[in-house]
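[Solved] Which block belongs to which protein?

Original post:
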Amino acid sequence: MLVASILRVYYWLGERFDTSLLVQAVIMISVQTLLLKVALDYRPGRSFKGGTEAIPFLDAHEDSLVVLARPWGFWQWRSPKPYWHFLGMFAISLAFLQLILGSIPFYVATIGYLALSVEATLPIPQIISNHRARSCKGFRFSVLFSWILGDCMKMTFFFLADSSIPWAFKMCGLFQFACDLYLGLQYWQFGGGPGQDSTWEKEKDVRLA
């Protein structure tokens, strides 16, 4: 969400869509930054030299047939500094590109679709988790309800607002709405029963990851 929100801010510089969507992105950056700081401050420490308890999502691929290592241990760093360095360099790099390419419509559209695609695909890990476990255990109904309700309100605004809303918002919003509805179907089909242990089960709200 941090990456998607930062990209959306730079998208606004080129597209100048409704200001309320820019404000939403700025608020999301603030909230997600605070959540990241809390998560880094209170994550478990290493119990011994070379221990792995503090590495996020270490067991994410434990039951997978294919294990893909993250390049440079991306987002699995033990020290908090690389997280802030990455976010800072990411924002600075986008600012540099904005100065050079900000007047090119194709670049602006690419930034927009990239930002909104990242956000729209966030439910997919939860869908895969539920499918593998044949259960929605660990996924709260209240979260699902809030996602679908938010999607309904978002779609109403995108398609009925008097202000100009780029099609990137509408297309990616519809895809995310479809994913959330499929999560609702999974919840109705599988329920919150025991099922098989899921490697993503501990991520109860994947949008905070």
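(Second protein starts here: sequence line, then its structure tokens.)
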Amino acid sequence: MDDHHQDSEEEYSSDTPPDALIDSSAALTYWSNIPANVNGMLGGYPQISRIDLRGSANFLTKLRRQASLSSSSSTSSSTSSGLPLLSHATDCGAGIGRVTLGFLSKVCEVVDLVEPVASFVEQIRHGNEMAELREKQKIGKVYQMSLEDWNPIPGRYDLIWNQWCLGHLTDNALVAYLKRCVRALKLDEESGVGGWVVVKENISTDSEKEDLYDSKDNSVTRTDEKFRSLFQKAGLKIVLTELQMGFPKKLGLLPVRFYALKPDWKKE
């Protein structure tokens, strides 16, 4: 839904799978009442935004250098790391565009955004924070819809960035969504050159290694094992993964993990 950083979950003793408790309409109602600012997006922890954005930029730089991939989707412009700009990315569960403003717009020529909450979309389309990006035509299409309803254009993206939003999808809906993301990547099946799906999400620290349901915003925090299982079901392989570092320990926040994913052609 946006960039909200959960710091607590509730455990349920019921045999009902945690993701079965997700109520998308209730989640939309919840987020529609959250202030359309960075404090609202980050659940009252605006001080982590800079660390978060720097971590994301570092992860993408490492990913691109590891893959030795940029020439097929680049222009003459370059990023602060010296890598050519990617041509087209999308910010999924974009909130007010915090990740686009502070990170994606600096590494991509154009960024599309997907966000269902009307007040957040208003900030993207008309807010002062995003005005310069709009003027420079860095903002592409803005889709006011849920990820379940988003059917991206095939072969459009170098990068599909998902951050603090996938907990609002059931396991089955997430697999279906990731399969649509695969089709939306720029791909060359023979060479393996193409784009990435990146997932950046909180990780459950439950002692029983279970996913945890948060009744406050109707979301699920998944275990690392669950994410890996769902990625495999979606036909994706992990090409790089690491933890976000640098959040102050005194805040007691959940661990956050990056996953860079590409289609697993061998499974086909």
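Accepted answer:
You had them paired correctly. Confirming on the second one: The first helix runs from residue 24 to 32.
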